Amino acid sequence: xxxxxxxxxxxxxxxxxxxxxxxxxxxxxxxxxxxxxxxxxxxxxxxxxxxxxxxxxxxxxxxxxxxxxxxxxxxxxxxxxxxxxxxxxxxxxxxxxxxxxxxxxxxxxxxxxxxxxxxxxxxxxxxxxxxxxxxxxxxxxxxxxxxxxxxxxxxxxxxxxxxxxxxxxxxxxxxxxxx
Amino acid sequence: xxxxxxxxxxxxxxxxxxxxxxxxxxxxxxxxxxxxxxxxxxxxxxxxxxxxxxxxxxxxxxxxxxxxxxxxxxxxxxxxxxxxxxxxxxxxxxxxxxxxxxxxxxxxxxxxxxxxxxxxxxxxxxxxxxxxxxxxxxxxxxxxxxxxxxxxxxxxxxxxxxxxxxxxxxxxxxxxxxxxxxxxxxxxxxxxxxxxxxxxxxxxxxxxxxxxxxxxxxxxxxxxxxxxxxxxxxxxxxxxxxxxxxxxxxxxxxxxxxxxxxxxxxxxxxxxxxxxxxxxxxxxxxxxxxxxxxxxxxxxxxxxxxxxxxxxxxxxxxxxxxxxxxxxxxxxxxxxxxxxxxxxxxxxxxxxxxxxxxxxxxxxxxxxxxxxxxxxxxxxxxxxxxxxxxxxxxxxxxxxxxxxxxxxxxxxxxxxxxxxxxxxxxxxxxxxxxxxxxxxxxxxxxxxxxxxxxxxxxxxxxxxxxxxxxxxxxxxxxxxxxxxxxxxxxxxxxxxxxxxxxxxxxxxxxxxxxxxxxxxxxxxxxxxxxxxxxxxxxxxxxxxxxxxxxxxxxxxxxxxxxxxxxxxxxxxxxxxxxxxxxxxxxxxxxxxxxxxxxxxxxxxxxxxxxxxxxxxxxxxxxxxxxxxxxxxxxxxxxxxxxxxxxxxxxxxxxxxx
Lengths: 179, 657
Hints:
The complex is a heterodimer. Chain A contains seven helices and no strands. By secondary structure, chain A is mainly alpha-helical.
């Protein structure tokens, strides 16, 4: 528990992220620095970017990013530099290479798969014969009669049909129109 | 003494849960009414016993009984009463007790209100619910017992984590648990239906209220958590794609999908096996959430109680329930035959599209959340998956969903003409496009996020209006008919409109936020986004259990004072932990958000100022979604069904007992 409190104290109460004295004079560079910081993980934190974190290490990394930018590095150069030093763990947006391809492709692949499955299902449904109108078996019919008889005996109030659909007014003739 | 009574009640509840999970199931199989009838009293008794245990623990917290280890670890005599009470679930053991209390609460609901269920289905539902209860009772008793005593009670406690001493977070867990555990009810219904081998429209109708309620509570819980993060963490972020947040978001997405597919089961008797599968998966995600939060497998900002032994126990529970349910599903799914026939363009198909989009979105979040684990285990790569990934991979599905949604609500059941549905929306579409163009022109040179977000938001809201209006028929008296529309229709429109409002808030805040960080001397003024700010004063003051650095900042617009804000920095000495209390001036169109930082060398103070357009729309939309759920829940067909059950029981009450 003590350790947990300590961790929370260090990490989850970001009293301060970017300090006023860190900000670069050139607003263009500063904006790039902020954008880059948002994609870099504070290594001692739990799932926070260095832009949000107030840990000392995050501050060091922020300063490092700004140093590289002032030295004239492009955004990609800065990222490469940081990754070379700290490993790909530092990237909040994982690279697309290698096994990570699976991660990035997961959503689109799943969408295609789901769409294909759904389409086959819908096609089958639209070609299927209606089952509901076949009617009740003798046994079910007998049970239904029984229930209806009893209900009529109990109360003769005009109860609305519980199973009715919500009203769909202006759609009369929809079925007639279809070929 | 009271603590021992609570402990004893908890053990008894475990025993009752074990009985409840076995006897009714056997009874339903053998058609023994006596055994089946065990279910209801057992469910009620289990709830009463758990409530007793929970009350005992609450009493221990309220009276600061530090002989209980849990109270000593998480409370303090100087803590305000509200947080003494909410501290009961501000820790692992207590929150598990709350979790299981809600499991039994839902069981008691079915026992009380389920008189219109077929006897064997009710017995089986309660039996499965009993199994879930038993598993979690065992988890509490064997790995995280809240009633453990200390041999020598200390003089004072260690205080609750100060971040949790906040009204927003105090009520965040109960709502989340109501949602998570509400999904256990749909799970029980799904498993019971698989055992019965029967899923029909009636089943859909019984399941839907529980799904709706669970989804509603999850919406409120998630919104509360996000709102808390917004004002408490000090930079006005509202969503971080943290594993624990994702753990609550995945069940929400799946519950939303389930909500819609259950409609198809209820009205059209199709998509049955898919709905059953969703119900199983939804609760699976709830339990994965519990596992992620409590096992420490995935690092997260607010994982509490990370303990491998507990993680193992939870993993076993998860494996048994998911494995069992999925095997049952594989064996019995073929029994469920779809009845409704529908065309490729129809309401049914559109709801299927909704299900695919929500399902895939949940899957993306899931893959992103566990990917660091997978990559380390199988590919030996240590990597992170953070917000930038989710923003890119998740958002497209929501954009698609927003585009399709209004068209879907215009589609009639069975067979529809796409052209006719689109024609109804033509005017709305043009208006929304014009709005987006206007936004585009006004913000020249910034990202497309603003215009696209505004278009989607307006499209959803306009779609909801068209949805309601088109249901009023033709000719005179449409307004009157509008008011008398079924509440389910209103609920649908309000919830969908709420989604639009939330999207507007997110897009507006992310696209047009202005941030300012600077050092300010006392008395100095500065300007941010058309507002003038003056740091009037900073002084130290004492709170009940903390010390505060208390600042006063005046905000003026066009020379007129519109707000005096008091941002604070608090320090909690017992936990030796600082927190930030941002000061926010809430407005309909914008929030002004001010944070006071550290004193600087030259006597000035660091001040962060944010201008956040449309911030409140995010939570306003969430509230609307929850209200929509509530309206739907109070629809006539549920009330009438409940009333019918009551009336039916009245004459022949003896037979029922």
